[in-house]
Amino acid sequence: MVYDMDDKDLAILDVLKENGDYTTRQIAKKTLLPPTTIHNRIRKLKSEGIIRKFTVDVDPSKVGKGFLSYILVSVNLGVLKRQKKTQYDIAEKLRKFYFVERVDIVSGGTDIVAVVRVKDVSEFDDILLGKLQLVEGVEKTQSLIAIHSRDVKKRK
User: Fold this and answer.
1) Residue 155 domain-assigned?
2) How do strand 112-118 and strand 100-105 relate by DSSP bridges?
3) Three-state secondary structure call for residue 130
């Protein structure tokens, strides 16, 4: 069932996306809604599963993870069938690596895309050849190295 959000919900979510640590009063000031409305709406959005969690946005370069790459993974379906496993199992294995930020199963010429962040090319070489390519069921990988990355801000 899809939750029917109105303009108030959308305004609250917009503020929270940019400033997840704002207090109810700060959100009320930005949205021009009463604090009690903000409190009740956030509680409802959480209970409906629209707000899944509050998190922290860390600057990767400041914590030694400035090297970003997208790893395109092709799986060997024959190996997976023999093991009675699926692409979901491979994706779960990849998600468990400390250097993997995100894993998506996709359609097209690639089966899985993993977003990887590490310190530098040397660490990338170690994890690609020493970990990712050794996961049973991974047939081949292709690496896309990000030469420039920044968050895309919504323009008004």
Assistant:
1) no
2) antiparallel
3) helix
Write out pLDDT tens, residues 27-48. Answer: 999 999 999 999 999 999 999 9
Domain shared by 71 and 135, yes or no? yes
At 119, list the tokens: 């310190």
Cross-strand partners of 112: 73, 105
Q: Is 41 found in the same domain as 104?
A: no
Instruction: Please give the distance of CA 144 from its chain centroid, rounded to a whole number.
Output: 17
CATH code of the domain in which 20 resides: 1.10.10.10
SS3 95: helix
Q: Name the region of 64 (left: φ>0; alpha: ψ -120 to 50; beta: rest).
A: left
CB atoms within 10 A of CB 150: 6
CA distance 101 to 83: 26
The DSSP output letter for 154 is P
CB atoms within 10 A of CB 48: 13
Query: What was the pLDDT predicted at 155?
Result: 45
